[in-house]
Amino acid sequence: MSLNNQVLDRPISQDLPYVEANLTYLIPMAEKPVNYTYEPPVGIPRTNGTYQTHKLPIYNARSISDNISLDREGFGFTGHHTNVRDFYDEDEVRRVYYPEAEQLLKEVTGGTQVVIFDNTVRNAGKSKPSENNIKEPAKRVHNDFTAKSGYTRARLELAARGIDDIDALLKQRFAIINVWRAIAQPIQESPLALCDARSIAATDLVAGDLVYRDRVGETYAVTYNAEHKWFYFPQMHRDEALFIKCFDSAEDGRARFAAHTAFEDPTSPIDAPPRESIELRAFVFYKN
After folding, report:
1. In Å, what is the CA distance from 166 to each residue of 101, 162, 180, 184?
2. Quick one: a GO biological-process term for this protein (predicted)?
C-alpha cells in the first residue's frame, strides 16, 4: 500500500458529486498574522487577522481515493482498522494507536522512520478550554506548518526525545504528515475539506505566528484563490484514515503543503451529533 504516486501532472476529474459550502480565508494584510491559542492579556486581540468566506464546490473524493497521492495532491485516504476502544483515553491512544499509526505511515509513505509527536482530539460538544484538551473543529483554511517551522518543530521534538545526530537526520528528506480519523460514529457535522496542493500558489500561503503559553509556532493562513480545488470524504468512520501532508522538505515538485479546514456541510442533518475526530502529527523520514 503506497500513497506516494510520482506522476505529478495528472488532473483529478471534476466529474464528481459535490456540495457547495462556505470556506473561511484570510484577507490579505500588511502585517504578520498572529493567533493566540489561549486568552491573551487584556487589550491584545485573540487574532489580528480578518477573514471572509467564499462559497465553493467541495468534491466527494471517495470514488477516486485509490488515485489520490500524498506526493501529488498532498493528501490520501485508506481503510484501516484500529484496536483503540476509547480515543479519549490518552494512555490508550499512546499505547495502542501510536504504534498502529507508525506502522501505517511506513506502509503508505515508504518512510523508514516515523516519530509521532502530537495528537489532538476534537469534539465541540465536549471541548472545555479551561478544563480539558479537547478542541473544536478548526474552521479557517490553514496548513499546520510553514517552510520554516517544519524544521523548527522537528528540532524541538527530536531534541526532547534525546535523538542523536539531529543535523544529519534533517539533511534527509522528511515530511510532517497528519493521520486523521473519526473516533465514534460516522462524521456528519463539520467534515474536513482538503485542497489539492497543485492548485495552491506560493503567494496564497501567509506565514503567521501561533502563540502558545510557552513558545511561538508558525503556521500558514491561506488567502483566497479561484484556482483552489477542494475535496472531502463524507461519512468517515473510525476504520478509515485520512493523511494530510503539512510539510515536506523536498523541493522537487512533490506536494509540500496541503491546506485544509473543517466546514459546515449543507447536507448535514440539523440534529447531527458534533464531529468526534483525532489527528496525530508525525515526522516521516525517508532514505535519500
Report:
1. 23, 9, 27, 38
2. methylation
Length, in residues, of the chain:
288
Per-residue model confidence as pLDDT tens digits over 149-194: 999 999 999 999 998 899 999 999 999 999 999 999 899 999 999 9
List the beta bridge partners of residue 178.
Answer: 244, 281
**Which of 231, 278, 220, 270 minimizes the C-alpha distance to 25?**
220
Which H helix or E strand runs over 161? none
d(CA 147, CA 183): 31
Convert the pLDDT of each residue in 30-66 to its tens digit.
Answer: 999 999 988 899 999 999 999 999 999 999 999 999 9
Question: Mean pLDDT across the chain, nearest whole number?
Answer: 94
Is there a domain that residue 25 lies in? yes
Task: Give the residue numbers spanning the domain of 29.
Answer: 18-285
pLDDT at residue number 201? 98
**Count of structural domains within the chain:** 1
Assign residue 165 a region: left if phi > 0, alpha if psi is -120 to 50, beta otherwise?
Answer: left
**For residues 157 and 176, what is the distance between their CA atoms, to the nearest angstrom?**
12
Compute the distance between CA of residue 285 and CA of residue 288 in angstroms, rounded to an integer.
Answer: 9
Are 208 and 35 in contact, with CB atoms under 8 Å apart? yes
Q: Is residue 221 part of a domain?
A: yes
92: nearest Cα among 81, 100, 102: 100
